[in-house]
Amino acid sequence: MAPGRHARTSPSIATLVESRPPGSLSLTLRVRGPLPAEAVWERYADPSLWRAWGPYIRGVDGLGPRLRAATRGRVLGPLGVVADAVVAAVDEDARTWSWAARSGPFVLRLTHGVESVVLRDGASGTRAWLTVRGAPVVVLAYALPATLALTALVRRRVEQ
Predict the structure, then answer these.
(1) Which residue from 90, 64, 89, 62 is spatially nearest to 75, judged by alpha carbons?
(2) Would you call 13 exposed, middle or buried from its count of C-beta atoms within 10 A (0-12, 13-18, 19+)?
(3) Whole-angstrom Cα distance, residue 93 to residue 88?
(4) Is 112 helix (H, G, I), strand (E, B) or coil?
(5) Where would a tag sit more exposed on the chain, N or C end, judged by fewer CB atoms within 10 A?
(6) Which CATH architecture has domain 43-126+150-160?
(7) Which positions are tagged coiled coil (predicted)?
(8) What's the DSSP call for residue 62?
(9) For 85-137, how does the pLDDT look when each residue is reduced to its tens digit (9 = 90+)?
């Protein structure tokens, strides 16, 4: 496959970049899929839909019916893990949003985006990406479930 080309729905190779502060790690994941960017964005923008595409999300409390900056809530994960969440920014036009999640002593800073793309077969689709920053052990542990969630986000239709 030519450089820069991706299979229709396969995850791309993650990009690892050392970031500030020292000892933290930044990881960017990108996936492509056939769902339209508008539909994928709505699945991000409505926290009540997160459980449908996030296999590790057990519930979302307090983030409201739609993402907006300065909203605080909680994301309930597997094995009783609870992350306090603060939405830092939402740009509906650019289809990007960022937030911080804290569970115990660990904080992750996450930035998400959704873009319309032309897939390898010429069909319209979406690229969803996530940049996550935090303690290396937490960032690396989060990489697999995050990739699975992004893949479901752009590929699997959800009953609303």
Answers:
(1) 62
(2) exposed
(3) 16
(4) strand
(5) N
(6) 2-Layer Sandwich (3.30)
(7) none
(8) S
(9) 999 999 999 999 999 999 999 999 999 999 999 999 999 999 999 999 999 99
